């Protein structure tokens, strides 16, 4: 199965399950969780089901394209089910069939792995799912986002698409994955891995990033004050990414780190609170769509 | 007598919770039964990742009955003037479920009260169990709880089903959105179910034979160990078991199936610790070694499955481990090219803690501290110790430790040897994080022990200077463990060090820092902190509180000295004349503490001529005679003999108290007598604080 076939198979499976197939969010994020289709939609009482691919940037994980298992950007397939179905684990295991993995042939494990995002003020409990010793999915019961208790609780599934493909295609380097019949993952991403690693670790302008962080923070706060939560959230995401870039550059000391995280979390909490109020004012329209 | 089984079906509960949950479940259930007066035989609990089970082979089918005498409101407020019961009276009748005819009057000191005799209990156990069950589900505690459904019920992981049977009858325990029934689900692949359980006693057979679940963790452990050993023997080796990991492995599977996988021999060039950590920490697998202790190119993993195609699954595990080893190999070869001096330079960029500078700064301080300790103890390893201090943190910037932080120190030692350092220095680097826990070994080598003390003292002084003092359960930098580590090293190695001097030296080596505590406050706080660790250490060894307290109060700066005093005092406390001796010298202590200050501070200077009574002359003479001998024994640190002196002294002191009135009206004489006692007390107080010796 090619890389793009895995995506299509998951799209098909989750579309059939009733999910809205979102498109990747177009602001830099570190994980599919940051997509507003997760961060915001898990808040409040309205039911919600979605699935989408999200390119996820983690500057510190870059290895100049030299390490066969590590990337500064990878692709996550993210699913949100709200409320959580009673047969959550079975629903997930069936999605493996869609990718050609028969769970009854393999040693499948749910290994404790609680999840926390200090910048989003979010946490959940759950597992990483192992197939024959390899982690392929994060399975999390979301408890809180933006410091707000989730009611109902959402299930978040995050598939590591590269891992799954390396497994399915029996490849030892991520760059050798076939994207389709003609093109490998490496042909698309090897150069970007190298250049972004150079940029993230060596060339980024620290002064510009610090300034930009401050400006984005102000922008987000201003937008929140004016009730424009969606653009406010974009600038919150930018702050989060800028923080990651600064960290990759080693520009933030351990003591400063905590305060930067708190600043981003503050923005995220404001946006989350605003979203909750806005949906309330609109009378929670999705509660009535059946 | 009935049989009872209760299965709580859960999504995978973290392995580390299971042993504790089994204990809690047994305790809570037994206690609830006892409180309700339901008799039962042995109660067993079982746990797998997907189920918690309670089994009782013999359970009374009815609660015991008992008579209860219940007092109600005073008679004077319970009746209307007409003689009918009023609201208060009726309320009492209703709350006890009796009729007005059952009431009688009981007389007490406070007057007449309504009372009633009721029979309680006798309910059917099956009617009590549902309430008991949900009480227990809410009562189980977890390190973290979660919600998963609209009831908002909190538990460690989602509960998905419950089965509960008393003999053949369903016990409808209700909790979350579930009600217990008579169905169980087995192993997810090998026996998914659902399976109907006709009677409680059938549960074990069904879950094993149809559900393919090995309920008993002891049995799972035996299976993994037995089959694992056999597989390793086939390859001419033995499994390198890690007890903690083994416990975890058996608690993440319902159907353990040990499997041996292999890897390329070329990875055997990696250091043993790196190989083992790669297998253990990420893959929860064990290494295999030959008779000489060399690792073989195999690993033992434990499946939770009897696979239809074993090779398919084994290949999966081998591929993952290979990727891990490839990573490790990559890190190892990158590290091989770096020099220690390069790494030392990089330490300048590694933050130690807040405003306390970098790891490079720390290594500079450790060198200073190393020189100080060596000078002080005259160990003659100053050069090696200084070198070890300079390089002991370099592995923090190595790739391997970046990946496996539990290998800090171990890798430092390996790199030091490979990069041409002396064995003494390398050994010290390797050992300087030891002991890692209250039971784990301390450094074997002297250099390792000294470096470990220096490093821990540096951490403690740094944190305390910033007023980062552990409180309650909050101890993020494990300062308690580190202080205890110093205590153990100092005692086990017999290092004659003064804690306050060491604290001052460590603080001095920090130079100018933005401290929140002054050096004096920092020293005082740390000494108190050390005292608590020392106290915990000796109480842990089984010494009694009063012995430990009396010894510590007499001084805890030189721990080796404290140890000798404490052990001697403990021996003395087992002798018959210990208690009279304590009483006598406590009396001295008391009178000085209570009366000593009233005529200005005492100094122990007394005038032997101005002691009119023969008994006080005798006491003064005895003290004079004792002084030279006392000094010699102190020098020899012969505390048994010092304590034995108390025996000789006691009759003299007793007779002093029997015949001499210390608190006389004559203030000159009073002061002289108090000073005489003070001079005695000042000798004794170095031995033990008698005020602490409660009898």
| C-alpha end-to-end distance of chain A | 36 Å
**What would you say the CATH architecture of the largest domain in chain B is?**
Orthogonal Bundle
Number of strands of chain B: 16
CATH class of the largest domain in chain B: Mainly Alpha
Name the helix and strand elements of chain A from N-terminus to C-terminus, one letter apiece: HEHEEHEEEEEHHHHH
Q: Which descriptor suits the 3D outline of chain B?
A: flat
Low-confidence stretches of chain B: none
Helix content range of chain B: 40-55%
Q: Structurally, how many domains make up the residues of chain B?
A: 5
pLDDT under 50 segments of chain A (min length 5)?
none
Query: Based on the structure, what is the oligomeric state of the protein chains?
Result: heterodimer
Percentage beta strand of chain B: 5-15%
Walk me through the topology:
The complex is a heterodimer of chains A (290) and B (695).
Chain A: H1 3-16, E1 20-21, H2 36-39, E2 48-57, E3 73-82, H3 88-98, E4 108-112, E5 115-117, E6 122-131, E7 134-145, E8 148-160, H4 161-169, H5 185-203, H6 206-225, H7 229-248, H8 254-281
Parallel strand pairs in A: 1-2
Antiparallel strand pairs in A: 2-3, 3-8, 4-6, 5-6, 6-7, 7-8
Chain B: E1 2-10, H1 18-35, E2 43-48, E3 51-59, E4 65-74, H2 87-96, E5 104-108, E6 111-121, H3 125-139, E7 159-166, E8 169-170, E9 174-175, E10 178-179, E11 183-184, E12 195-196, H4 203-210, H5 217-234, E13 238-240, H6 243-250, E14 257-262, H7 272-283, E15 286-289, E16 295-303, H8 310-337, H9 340-346, H10 359-377, H11 382-391, H12 399-403, H13 410-418, H14 423-431, H15 446-465, H16 479-493, H17 499-509, H18 519-540, H19 545-553, H20 559-572, H21 578-595, H22 614-636, H23 639-659, H24 667-684
Antiparallel strand pairs in B: 1-3, 1-7, 2-3, 4-6, 5-6, 7-8, 9-10, 11-12, 13-15, 14-16, 15-16
Helix pairs in contact in B: 1-3, 7-8, 10-11, 10-15, 11-14, 11-15, 13-14, 14-15, 15-16, 15-17, 15-18, 16-18, 17-18, 18-19, 19-20, 20-23, 21-23, 21-24, 22-23, 22-24
């Amino acid at each position: 199965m090619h890389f793009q076939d895995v995506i299509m198979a998951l799209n098909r499976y989750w579309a059939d399950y009733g999910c809205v197939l979102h498109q990747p969010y177009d602001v830099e994020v570190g994980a599919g969780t940051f997509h507003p289709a997760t961060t915001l939609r898990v808040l409040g009482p309205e039911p919600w089901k979605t699935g989408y691919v999200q390119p996820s940037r983690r500057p510190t994980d870059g290895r100049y394209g030299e390490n066969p298992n590590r990337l500064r950007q990878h692709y996550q397939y993210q699913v949100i089910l709200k409320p959580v179905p009673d047969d959550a684990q079975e629903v997930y295991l069936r999605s493996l069939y869609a990718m050609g993995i028969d769970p009854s042939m393999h040693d499948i494990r749910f290994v404790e792995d609680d999840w926390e995002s200090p910048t989003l003020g979010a946490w959940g409990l759950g597992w990483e799912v192992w197939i024959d010793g390899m982690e392929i999915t994060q399975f999390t019961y979301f408890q809180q986002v933006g410091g707000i208790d989730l009611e109902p609780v959402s299930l978040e599934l995050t598939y590591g698409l590269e891992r799954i493909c390396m497994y399915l295609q029996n490849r030892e380097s991520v760059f050798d994955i076939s994207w389709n019949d003609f093109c490998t993952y490496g042909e698309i991403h090897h150069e970007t891995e190298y250049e972004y690693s150079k940029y993230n670790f060596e060339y980024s302008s620290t002064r510009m990033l610090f300034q930009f962080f401050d400006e984005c923070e102000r922008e987000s706060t201003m937008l929140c004050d004016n009730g424009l939560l969606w653009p406010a959230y974009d600038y919150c995401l930018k702050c989060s990414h800028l923080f990651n870039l600064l960290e990759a550059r080693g520009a933030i000391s351990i003591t400063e780190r905590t305060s930067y995280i708190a600043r981003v979390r503050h923005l995220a909490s404001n946006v989350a609170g605003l979203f909750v109020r806005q949906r309330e004012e609109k009378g929670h329209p999705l509660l009535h769509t059946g | 007598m009935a049989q009872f089984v209760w299965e709580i079906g859960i999504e995978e509960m973290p392995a580390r919770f299971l042993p504790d949950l089994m204990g809690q479940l047994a305790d809570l259930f037994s206690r609830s039964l006892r409180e309700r007066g339901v008799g039962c035989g042995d109660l067993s609990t079982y746990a797998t990742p997907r189920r918690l089970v309670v089994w009782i082979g013999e359970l009374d089918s009815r609660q015991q009955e008992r008579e209860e005498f219940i007092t109600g409101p005073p008679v004077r407020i319970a009746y209307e003037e007409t003689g009918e019961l009023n609201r208060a009276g009726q309320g009492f009748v209703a709350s006890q479920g009796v009729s007005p005819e059952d009431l009688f009057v009981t007389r007490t000191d406070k007057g007449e009260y309504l009372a009633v005799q009721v029979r309680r209990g006798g309910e059917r156990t099956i009617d009590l169990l549902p309430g008991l069950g949900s009480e227990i589900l809410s009562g189980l505690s977890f390190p973290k709880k979660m919600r998963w459904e609209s009831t908002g019920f909190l538990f460690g992981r989602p509960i998905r089903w419950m089965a509960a049977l008393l003999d053949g009858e369903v016990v409808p325990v209700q909790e979350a959105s579930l009600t217990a029934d008579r169905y169980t689900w087995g192993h997810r692949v090998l026996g998914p179910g659902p399976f109907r359980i006709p009677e409680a006693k059938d549960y074990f057979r069904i879950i094993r034979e149809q559900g393919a679940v090995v309920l008993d963790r002891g049995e799972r452990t035996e299976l993994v160990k037995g089959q694992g050993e056999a597989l390793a023997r086939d390859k001419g080796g033995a499994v390198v078991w890690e007890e903690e990991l083994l416990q975890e492995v058996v608690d993440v599977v319902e159907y353990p199936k040990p499997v041996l996988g292999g890897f390329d021999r070329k990875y055997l060039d990696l250091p043993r610790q790196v190989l083992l950590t790669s297998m253990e920490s990420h893959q929860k697998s064990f290494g295999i070694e030959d008779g000489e202790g060399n690792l073989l190119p195999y690993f033992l993993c434990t499946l939770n499955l009897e696979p239809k195609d074993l090779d398919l699954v084994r290949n999966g595990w081998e591929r993952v481990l290979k990727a891990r080893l490839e990573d490790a190999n990559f890190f190892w070869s990158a590290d091989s090219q770096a020099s220690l001096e390069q790494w030392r330079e990089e330490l300048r960029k590694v933050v130690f803690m807040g405003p306390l500078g970098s790891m490079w700064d720390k290594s500079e301080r450790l060198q200073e501290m190393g020189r100080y300790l060596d000078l002080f103890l005259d160990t003659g390893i100053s050069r090696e110790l200084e070198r070890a201090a300079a390089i002991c943190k370099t592995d923090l910037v190595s790739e391997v430790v970046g990946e496996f932080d539990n290998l800090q120190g171990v890798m430092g030692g390996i790199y030091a040897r490979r990069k041409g350092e002396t064995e003494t220095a390398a050994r010290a680097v390797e050992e300087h994080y030891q002991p890692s826990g209250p039971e784990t070994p301390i450094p074997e080598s002297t250099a390792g022990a000294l470096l470990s003390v220096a490093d821990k003292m540096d951490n403690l002084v740094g944190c305390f200077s910033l007023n980062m003092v552990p409180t309650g359960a909050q101890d993020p930098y494990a300062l308690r463990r580190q202080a205890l580590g110093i205590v153990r090293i100092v005692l086990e190695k017999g290092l004659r060090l003064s804690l306050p001097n060491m604290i001052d030296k460590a603080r001095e080596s920090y130079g100018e820092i933005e401290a929140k505590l002054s050096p004096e406050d920092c020293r005082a706080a740390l000494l108190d902190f050390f005292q608590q660790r020392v106290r915990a250490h000796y109480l842990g060894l089984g010494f009694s509180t009063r012995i430990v307290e009396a010894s510590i109060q007499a001084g805890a700066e030189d721990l080796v000295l404290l140890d000798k005093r404490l052990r001697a005092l403990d021996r003395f406390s087992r002798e018959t004349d210990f208690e009279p001796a304590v009483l006598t010298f406590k009396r001295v202590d008391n009178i000085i503490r209570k009366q000593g200050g009233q005529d200005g501070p005492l100094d122990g200077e007394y005038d032997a001529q101005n002691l009119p009574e023969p008994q006080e002359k005798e006491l003064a003479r005895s003290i004079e005679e004792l002084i030279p001998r006392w000094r010699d024994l102190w020098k020899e640190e012969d505390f048994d003999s010092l304590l034995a002196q108390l025996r000789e002294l006691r009759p003299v002191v007793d007779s002093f108290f029997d015949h001499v009135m210390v608190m006389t009206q004559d203030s000159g004489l009073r002061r002289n007598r108090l000073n005489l006692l003070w001079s005695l007390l000042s000798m004794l107080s170095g031995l033990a604080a008698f005020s602490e010796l409660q009898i």
